Amino acid sequence: MFIVTNRIPVASGHEEEFENRFRHRAHLIDQSPGFVKNLVMRPVQRRFNHKTGEYEESAEQGYYLVQTYWENEEAFWNWTKSESFRAAHSNRPPAEMFAGPNVLEIHEVVFSTDRREADEG
């Protein structure tokens, strides 16, 4: 499994608009060979304080995480070269929607556990 994560700092006041862009997207990626799933995750502004053992509200900038899961690395790179990729990224959001630059991270799964696997075992 191959996972691509885009960490995106969304500016305060633009969260709903950002989320709606994904809710109403064209779903072009969904039809790509090797595509598994897409997750959009909203940041939670609570952090665990290891010194006190308590959860605390945090004022630091959180990042939305947009993850795409692929069967393999080749499937992801093929998507980035496709006409569907260009079309999916053609409607650029306004710059003021973001509180800074995004960070693209790419990972290969080395080990995974799944609750369903544990329940079946």
What does this structure look like?
With 121 residues, this protein is an alpha+beta fold. The protein is 24% helix and 29% strand. A 4-stranded antiparallel beta sheet has the order 2-5-1-6. The two termini are 21 Å apart.
- The low-confidence runs, each spanning 5 or more residues with pLDDT under 50, are none
Q: Count of DSSP E strands?
A: 6
Using only CA atoms, what is the Rg?
A: 17 Å
Q: Spatial order of the strands in the main sheet?
A: 2-5-1-6
By helix and strand content, what is the structural category?
A: alpha+beta
What's the total helix number? 4
The shape, in one word, is: flat
- CA-CA gap between termini: 21 Å
Main sheet attributes: strand count, strand direction, barrel closure: 4 strands, antiparallel
Average pLDDT confidence is 91
